[in-house]
Every structure is written in C-alpha cells, then in structure tokens.
Amino acid sequence: MILEAARTYDIDLSKSYMVGDAGSDIEAGVNAGCRTVAVLSGQLSEEHEWLNLPVRPEFMFADVYRFAAHLLSERDESDISIPDTTRSN
C-alpha cells in the first residue's frame, strides 16, 4: 500500500515518515524506504518494548503531537514534499 501510494502520488519515500505504534508499522516503513517514527501512545507503550523488536525505529516520541511539534521545529522547506492529490488517474 505504501509503495502504491508513492507511485500514484509521486512521493519520495526517502523523505517520508512512517509513524506507528506497532512493530509491524515500523517494519513496513523500513521495507518501503521511509524514515520511521514510533509513538508510545499505542500498542507498544513503553520504550523498552520497542528495543526488543527486530526492527527499530529511527525516532521515538510519546505521541504524534510531540513528533509533529519536533518536525515543525526542525523542518527545512526544501526537505518538505507535499504530494499533488488533485491529479486524477
């Protein structure tokens, strides 16, 4: 599904984030070539639980709000890619 969306909307996955609360979310992001972010507000709610998984996220935040705040504080306009969702197939 991630790869299909990237093709359809011309998304550069190397500049995209997969945010999830489960190991399978992080694994999907890694397999797709995305940067990965674990949030501790869901399925795996303790940092030590993430450390026991075979695939580790690049970043870890308490919740999506804190990740978004971090992203906004660190953003570089040239790094941000917004897909054109108005295009028809």
Summarize the structure.
The protein is of the alpha/beta class and about 90 residues long. The chain contains four helices and three strands; from the N terminus they run αβαβαβα.
CATH architecture field: 3-Layer(aba) Sandwich
- Spatially, the strands of the biggest sheet line up as 1-2-3
CATH superfamily: HAD superfamily/HAD-like
Helix content: 25-40%
Q: Strand count, sense and closure of the main sheet? A: 3 strands, parallel
Mean pLDDT: 82
Question: Structural class of the helices, strands and pairings?
Answer: alpha/beta
N-C termini distance? 16 Å
Radius of gyration: 14 Å
**Uncertain segments:** none
Number of strands: 3
Shape: globular
Q: Mind telling me the CATH class?
A: Alpha Beta
- CATH names the topology as Rossmann fold
Amount of beta strand: 5-15%
* Integer tally of domains: 1
